[in-house]
Amino acid sequence: MFNLFKKKKSEPSRGDQYLSLKIREIVKETPDTVSIYFEQPEPYLDYKPGQFITVILDINGKEERRSYSLCTSPFVDPFPGISVKRVSGGIVSNYLNDQLRPGKTMEIMKPMGNFTKDFHSKNNIQYFMIAGGSGITPIMGLIKSILINEPSSKVTLLFCSRNEEQIIFKKNIDLLASQHPEKLEVIHNLSQPSADWTGMKGRLDSTKVKEVLSWSEDASKSEKRYFVCGPEGLMSTTLNTLKELNIPESIIHEESFYSDLDAKEAAMKASGEIGPSLTREITVNVEGQDYTYEVAPDKTILEAGLDNNVDMPYSCQSGLCTACRGRLVSGKVDMIEDAGLSAGEIADGYILCCSSKAASSDIKIIIE
Ligand SMILES: Cc1cc2nc3c(=O)[nH]c(=O)nc-3n(C[C@H](O)[C@H](O)[C@H](O)COP(=O)(O)OP(=O)(O)OC[C@H]3O[C@@H](n4cnc5c(N)ncnc54)[C@H](O)[C@@H]3O)c2cc1C
Ligand code: FES
């Protein structure tokens, strides 16, 4: 299924899933975050709220790909947009904050991702959205979509930022809350607020999550849904709290933006979960064609494939988006990050090539 996202290195014209978007407007949201809005292409960009696009840029002669969630709603916003927060020392986030101008075009891969849902006017759902920093981006598109499509549903947003200046979409969120006072409740938590701040403050912990859930509980809503997106600490605190409260995983949606694969690999090696890596020859079947190549210990299966000019699909390169998913039909891999895969996919033998190292000599992977 993921061959849609392949980049044909040898072909100048790219497949249907690649397109150029023209930048319409750039809005500075906070000192370190910009929103980039695009002109609608022909035909219109088809996406679901909460999905992400992959931007493909040439920076200093090297192709860089990064995933960015759409902050817009296809039901509300005429132009699709992304919001990008600077990461200290980051190549793409700083380029996007500093180097773009309206009128410039940008190559992307079309939207993908499962941090979304269907919307129905009959739904009577209580949504809890817990976001931190740039994690508000997909949640913004989801909230707008719920408010317009589901008159009986209610949204509680717990949004964690560093200080007042760093609250992304502050004006838009305030506006939505004033337009929908019965349907949208917003609680800001600031980790380093000014002395004037009277709201929730300090690090998000389990007590705060529980407090917000119980304050906002609406007994008239029998169905509940949880969406969580933000830095690793916020994600683990929130997800552990939801687990403690016996909230079924099936109604929790989570999206991670970052995974430190090197640190995870080192921890897995230290705990004996994975053994030392060796150079292995492996075979990857892409769209029916076999490619055999060596994977050195310091390379992932994706990195080695790309080094050997194998047309493998990919996007985030962090084990989060599943664009590089393949089925392991023989051999063994050490998968450092599997957050993008469901338990069912793992049980069915699926692996993520961008976060897997070769761990035996008879590896065969099929990418469909
Ligand atoms: C599905 C998905 C959706 C995403 N949506 C958004 C979005 O809507 N808005 C947004 O701003 N970002 C989003 N991201 C993150 C984005 O793709 C990039 O990872 C981020 O912009 C950093 O890229 P960079 O090139 O600036 O940093 P890099 O040059 O890749 O990294 C620089 C250094 O920072 C570390 N690093 C990279 N990212 C992070 C991070 N998030 N936290 C801590 N350390 C980090 C790296 O390990 C490295 O040491 C998303 C990621 C995924 C997987
Ligand atoms: S490229 Fe995103 S999970 Fe591998």
Automatic annotation (TrEMBL):
Keywords: 2Fe-2S, FAD, Flavoprotein, Iron, Iron-sulfur, Metal-binding, Oxidoreductase
2Fe-2S ferredoxin-type domain mapped to chain residues: 280-368
Co-factor(s): FAD
Source superkingdom: Bacteria
Name of the protein this chain belongs to: Ferredoxin--NADP reductase
PANTHER family: 1,2-PHENYLACETYL-COA EPOXIDASE, SUBUNIT E, NADH OXIDOREDUCTASE HCR
PROSITE patterns: 2FE2S_FER_1 (PS00197), 2FE2S_FER_2 (PS51085), FAD_FR (PS51384)
Species per Swiss-Prot/TrEMBL record: Belliella filtrata
Membrane spanning residue stretches: none
